[in-house]
Inverse folding.
């Protein structure tokens, strides 16, 4: 997967998530905040995590050149979380998302990685509008989206979901 672009910030490396990240992804997808705010993905083993990467993340990477990135701290190569750009047909566009293991929250890593992914989406992948969804209870995510320059747009309901979500959007200057 080395022909897909990775990104760097002052403290972080963001590389496309691959099957070698399965142990880490298994822990993240089963962390309490992931389950609470994103939902149970029924990934209960390393094999499930490898299949999730292969079937849910890799196809978009191969099709669009971007997808989900594993966020790695430069100082010790610790895998901290994920950040990415996701094509969501139900949102009619590209969704930015992020999630971190509990022990790495509140260190600015989510903002640092999401800022870089937003920049790359606009400057390197030519995306003119980025959206995001979050639950009404996830105030930390709402604040981060606002800090990234996204603005609350409206309430949405995804197909086959009961919960209303907050939809945020950012439109690159000169595009409507």
């Amino acid at each position: 997967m080395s022909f897909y672009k990775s990104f760097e910030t002052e403290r972080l490396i963001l590389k496309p998530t691959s099957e070698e990240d399965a142990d880490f992804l298994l822990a993240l997808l089963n962390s309490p905040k992931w389950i609470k705010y994103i939902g149970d993905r029924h990934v209960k083993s390393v094999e499930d995590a490898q299949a999730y990467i292969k079937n849910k993340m890799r196809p978009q990477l191969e099709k669009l050149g971007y997808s989900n990135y594993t966020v790695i701290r430069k100082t010790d190569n610790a895998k901290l979380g994920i950040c990415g750009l996701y094509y969501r047909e139900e949102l009619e566009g590209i969704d930015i998302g992020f999630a971190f293991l509990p022990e790495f929250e509140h260190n600015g890593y989510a903002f640092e990685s999401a800022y870089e992914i937003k920049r790359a989406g606009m400057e390197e992948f030519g995306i003119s509008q980025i959206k995001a969804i979050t639950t009404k209870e996830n105030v930390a995510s709402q604040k981060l989206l606002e800090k990234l320059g996204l603005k609350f747009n409206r309430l949405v309901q995804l197909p086959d979901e009961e919960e209303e979500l907050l939809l945020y959007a950012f439109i690159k200057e000169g595009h409507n």
